[in-house]
Specification:
The chain is of the alpha/beta class and 144 residues long. It has 7 helices and 5 strands; from the N terminus they run H-E-E-H-H-E-H-E-H-E-H-H.
């Protein structure tokens, strides 16, 4: 079986290599990746181009998101959680919910299954980034 979290981590590392925030996501249907994305807020000077939004955008217009699973390296914020709910993505697998708590209650309250994978690799990637870029991190999560 493919390791979809590894694919999301690969996306996060792309963002970091581009000078962005290391968050990545992949959208899966029927055991295949149909969309990939990473946080590109810094690279594109776009305040809402979070990894999950980029991933959904890159999947393109699909008739229905029923049966899809989003794998993301970090717990989705309210913006991204709203997109998951809006499009009917039924399940999200999260690599790290320790460094950012996000909106898991909002997701669960809207019938999205949240699986916290508790990936040490995802957590280490974010902790290292936050230690090196505290102001950029605060900007990303709206804490300035």
């Amino acid at each position: 079986m493919p390791d979809f979290m590894s694919a999301a981590i690969e996306e996060a590392r792309k963002s970091l290599a581009e000078g962005g925030i290391p968050i990545g996501a992949v959208l899966v249907r029927d055991g295949a990746i149909i969309g990939r994305g990473h946080n590109r807020r810094v690279q594109e000077d776009d305040p809402i181009l979070h990894a999950e939004i980029d991933c959904i955008r890159n999947a393109g217009r699909i008739r229905s998101y029923k049966g899809t699973v989003l794998y993301t390296t970090l717990m989705p914020c309210f913006l991204c959680s709203g997109a998951l709910v809006q499009f009917g993505i039924e399940k999200v697998v999260v690599g790290d919910s320790r460094t950012f708590h996000g909106a898991p209650s909002f997701l669960r309250d809207h019938w999205v299954s949240v699986v916290e994978a508790d990936s040490d690799e995802c957590t280490a990637l974010m902790k290292d980034f936050i230690a090196r870029n505290p102001e950029l991190w605060k900007e990303d999560i709206g804490a300035l």
